[in-house]
Amino acid sequence: MARPVMQSNSSSDSSVDAAVLWPGGIATAVVAALVALLGVLAFRWLFDVPILAPESAGAYGDADTTAYVLGTAGVALIATALLHLLLLTTPRPLVFFGWIIALATLVAVVFPFGTTSPLSQKFATATVNLFIGIAIGSLLTAVGARSVRSG
User: Fold this and answer.
1) Residue 98: which of 150, 139, 69, 147 has the closest Cα?
2) Which end of the chain has fewer CB atoms at under 10 Å, N or C?
3) Alpha-carbon distance 5 to 96, whole Å?
4) Cβ distance 98 to 108 under 8 Å?
């Protein structure tokens, strides 16, 4: 009698194509940085909410805006490295990655409410952080799925 073949979820059954994953991660970093920049500009210019810098700093803000935008790109690259590690070592890596990104995004959304900033600035920062998390999570999940080669 033949034994049923068990499907394995181990990472040894597939390989990760880094030549697909990392360019996708870099593109995600660019998109995430642009989402951050657009969010800051929208709230500062359109809604007159001075996030990350005093109102006198104008529509762009100051060096804090630059640090926020570049930091967002850095977070996307760190998320790409985490995804790569999960793809190499974890069963159901995209499920774990989704949970990690969702929880990290939730932390980023809740964190501004623990500051002494006015409520409008807290809401604005939380909203921008939410859109950044959605961008990073959705784009890298798609890139991760595309970068796995069945073996």
Assistant:
1) 139
2) N
3) 26
4) no
Helix 119-146 × helix 63-89 angle, to 10°: 30
Distances (CA, A) of 63 to 5, 47, 53, 111: 59, 20, 8, 21
**CA atoms of 49 and 85, how far apart (whole Å):** 39
pLDDT of residue 8: 40
CB 143 within 8 Å of CB 21: yes
- Planar angle of CA 52, 73, 78, nearest 5 degrees: 120
| Mean pLDDT score across all residues of the chain | 91
The pLDDT tens digits of the residues spanning 81-110 come to 999 999 999 999 999 999 999 999 999 999
Q: Kindly state the helix (H) or strand (E) to which residue 25 belongs, with its residue range.
A: helix 18-41
Over 70: is that where the pLDDT of 29 sits? yes
CA torsion sign, 38 to 39 to 40 to 45? positive
Query: What's the rounded Cα separation, in Å, for the pair 93 and 70?
Result: 27
Residue 102 CA from chain centroid, whole number: 9
50: helix, strand or coil: coil
**Beta-bridge mates of residue 150:** 14
